[in-house]
Amino acid sequence: MSSPPAGLEGPLWRSIAVFRFASLGYVCLLVLRDADRYAHPLAAGAVLLGMLAWSGVTAAGYARPANRRWPLLLADLGVVLVVLAVSPWVVGRAALAAGVPTLAVVWLAGPVLAWAVSGGRRRGAVAALALGAADLASRGRIGPSSLTGVILLLLAGVIVGHVARLAVTAEERLHRAVQLEAATRERERLARGIHDSVLQVLALVQRRGAHLDGEAGELARLAGEQEAALRALISGVDPVPAADAAGGTLDLRALLGRYASAAVSVSAPATPVPLPARVARELAAATGAALDNVRRHADGRAWVLVEDEGKTVTVSVRDAGPGIGEGRLAEAARQGRLGMSQSIRGRIADLGGEVRIVSAPGEGTEVELVVPREDG
Amino acid sequence: MSGVRVMVVDDHPMWREGVARDLTEAGHTVVATSGEGRQAVRVAAAARPDVVVLDLQLPDISGVEVIRGLRAVLPEVRVLMLSASGEQQGVLDAVKAGATGYLMKSAAPAEFLDAVRRTAAGEPVFTPGLAGLVLGEYRRLAVAGEGGARPGRDDAAPRLTERETEVLRLVAKGLSYRQIAERLGLSHRTVQNHVQNTLGKLQLHNRVELTRYAIERGLDD
Hints:
The complex is a heterodimer.
Chain A: H1 9-34, H2 41-62, H3 70-91, H4 93-97, H5 109-119, H6 121-139, H7 144-209, H8 214-234, E1 249-251, H9 252-257, E2 264-267, E3 274-276, H10 277-297, E4 302-308, E5 312-319, H11 326-334, H12 341-350, E6 354-359, E7 365-372
Parallel strand pairs in A: 2-4
Antiparallel strand pairs in A: 1-3, 4-5, 5-7, 6-7
Helix pairs in contact in A: 1-2, 1-5, 2-3, 3-5, 3-6, 5-6, 5-7, 6-7, 7-8, 10-12
Chain B: E1 5-9, H1 13-25, E2 29-34, H2 37-47, E3 51-55, H3 63-73, E4 78-83, H4 88-97, E5 101-104, H5 109-120, H6 128-147, H7 162-172, H8 177-184, H9 188-216
Parallel strand pairs in B: 1-2, 1-3, 3-4, 4-5
């Protein structure tokens, strides 16, 4: 498992260390109170010193992410098991049976928390069950209060494990978001740079060479095409827009902006033209089909106009081709020359819209795609 | 017609020189060049150009601020915007601030020189893209006006006549004024006037809005 930079996890480990020392203080108070009832009071002092030493070892050990692995985790569990195992001898069976607590008391929750933070709620539960069972075994007598202790231990393991996983996931997401933001900033910076230098030079090359013949003119034309392509790339609208998560809407301008080139002018409002994602994609595809037609039957030069009329959205595609007379439109459609029966008319009809074609000899052909907006 | 007095404002030196050379060769006078907006406004007051060829992206202040500054020192100056990227909102804002022409930098030199001549003569120079923006802006204002409508007030949303809408749509679809005149059976001059009116109303509305804003903020006393 990849370990994210120590951010949210660090404080969790530190709080476990704090918990160990605090709970050890509580254990000391209980030992002082009950020492006169112990079978071996001096041994109790030795065990307490051991627990203090181990609290220090784990606090230092877990502070380093590289140590939060099985060797230390298992040793942690083992030390607490040893404390539980010696408890009957130190405290004495009789005292335990009379209700004197074991030497571990709440200190035994330390490994449970460590396991939970290192591996999630399942690991926390395993540690809690193991220590709970050992605790019950050391007491020799199972009462309601000792059972409650085990259940609380189990709850602590599960909940802390769950929260720790949430923290790690949140941290990973944050990390990704930060990376994404950095990438976006970098793109914006590049866009500014490209605008300030490359675009200007390309436009200049195109401008100075536009009237030249032969290769120089060709170079100028190519520079112009690249200028248009680059401009479309950095013009701020996302070249591959994702559906707006809020309502699944897309800005039609972003989809149609991709058709803009030296030969195709795309005119649109300055404000977004939101449409349901499906409608926007179909309308853009129909527009693309109309532009394909222009490339096949006219010189490829085309003008696209996007208009948002509120209840409807209209996309017009005009070319500067030879145009067709009124009577020949139907004939052309029959011959499949308009090529739009399916790819255009079908799409727009599915959206509940209509296709209007205006053409006259010498005036080019104009295709208007009108679709209703469904939202009310 | 004698040459036009032109000022070129662009932060790219190569571009500035290229444009200035084209203008000079065509018989116009380049009275000043500048690479910054604030400097351009200062210089314009002394150089008194007829037309300012303005790149919308300048290092110091926005194109809109440059246009406001220019019109404050030279109320009669005409502004022809050039931009390398089709920065839509910026172009629209500049038109509302008083620019009367817009051209992409990729336009051919002949097209550019024609645009300078027409701008000097007071004709609006529209690209299809600008026509689309202006159409969209009128619709936006109409929709916004429906909310807090104050009919009869001079700050009510401006509206296009049917003819103006028709003309603008044809401009947006790439037809020249001549083609539009033919198609609608109008004179070339009438088509031009319609286009000019669409800009004029937008600019007037913008000025009224700015004044109202200033009064509300108590900046006019």
